[in-house]
Amino acid sequence: MPMESSEAIEAARARHLAGSERLAQWLWPFTRLLLLALTAALLLRVLIVQPFAIPSSSMAPTLQAGDFVLVDKKAYGWARASLPLAADSGMAGDGGGRLFASAIPHGDVIAFVGPDGRDYVKRMIARGGETVELRNGLVLLNGVPLPCVPQNAAADGQLCREAIPSGRTHLSRDHAQGPRASFGPVTVPAGHLFVLGDNRGHSADSRVPAAEGGIGFVPEDKVIGRAARIFFAYDRGVRWNRIGTPVD
Predict the structure, then answer these.
(1) DSSP-derived 3-state class of residue 93
(2) Dihedral of CA 126/131/132/135: which sign?
(3) What is the pTM of this model?
(4) Cβ atoms < 10 Å from Cβ of 64
(5) Is the N-terminal amide bond of 150 cis, ω within 30° of 0?
(6) Closest CA to 82 of 31, 129, 42, 24
(7) CA 21 from chain center: how many Å?
(8) Cα-Cα end-to-end distance for the chain
(9) In contact, 76 and 221? CB cutoff 8 Å
(10) Per the CATH hierarchy, to which homologous superfamily does domain 54-242 belong?
(11) How far apart are CA 248 and CA 229, in angstroms?
(12) DSSP letters along 135-158, please?
């Protein structure tokens, strides 16, 4: 068989290169769109909103196990805890402060990185310099009781509507009896927050030191954002009535 001439080889190479160039030109718009979509999704998750799964009933009735909530990461400014995988990398809560920081309002349900590196969702009750006490399930902030109007009794605790000084209200289970129904008073250290679960008798929150398996006081630079809305809920089936519900 006669060997191909150098001209034929060059012609074949040119056709191959031309085909590769046409393929690249055809693929580039799709690649660029994919890159833009991935970049937008990353920025959205880092700067704007992040989904969280609720694994337990510690925030019931406000949030229930199987709820998925969207956390507003811009609500109080950004800290290193806002970065994806910050807890795993050890970057969360190392004194880095917050960018464009704003005060966290009393009563907000917040997501934060706990002392064990896991993410938690609890209700903010007090900030640095304020005093917190519980007496038979009733919360006192700076010595002033937070009214909790009974709603109905249940097997897992009296359901009541608790009011904070700003006038906002939320549902909680007060659990007048139990090992943590009475607590304090304690003064929250500067730069920290005192948080409680709405299901007071079943929440290892700021009443329990980290050394005993609780959360203790939460450094403000470990706050990820505000729990804003339930976007999905599932428990042996989709709970359609909870989807889209704002977090009070």
Answers:
(1) coil
(2) negative
(3) 0.76
(4) 17
(5) no
(6) 42
(7) 46
(8) 83
(9) no
(10) Umud Fragment, subunit A (2.10.109.10)
(11) 9
(12) ETTEEEETTEE--EEEEE--TT--
Tell me how far apart the alpha carbons of residues 228 and 72 are, in angstroms, rounded to a whole number: 6
Question: Other C-beta atoms within 10 Å of 85: how many?
Answer: 8
Mark the ranges of the chain whose per-residue pLDDT is less than 70: 1-48, 82-97, 100, 153-157, 175-176
Query: In the numeric block, which tokens belong to residue 28?
Result: 């580039």
Q: Cα 169 vs. chain centroid, distance in angstroms?
A: 21
CA dihedral 101, 61, 119, 52 (to 10 degrees): -90
Model pLDDT for residues 165-179, shown as the tens digit of each residue: 888 898 888 766 777
C-alpha 207/C-alpha 182 separation (Å) is 10
Q: Summarize pLDDT for 5-19 with one digit per residue, the tens.
A: 666 666 656 565 555
Q: What are phi and psi of 217, to 5 degrees?
A: -75, 140
Give the Cβ contact number of residue 49 at 10 Å.
Answer: 17
Catalytic residues: 58, 122
CA distance 72 to 96: 20
Return d(Cα 232, Cα 222) in angstroms, integer.
Answer: 25
For residues 65 and 55, the answer to whether their CB atoms sit within 8 Å is yes
Tokens of 57: 């009933």
